[in-house]
Amino acid sequence: MHITKDLVAASATPLVLGILAEGESYGYAILKQVGDLSGGRLEWTDGLLYPLLHRLERLGHVESVWRGPEGGRRRKYYRITEQGQAELAEQRRQWSAVVDALQNIWNDAQASGPKLAWEG
Question: For residue 94, what is the domain's CATH number?
Answer without folding.
Answer: 1.10.10.10
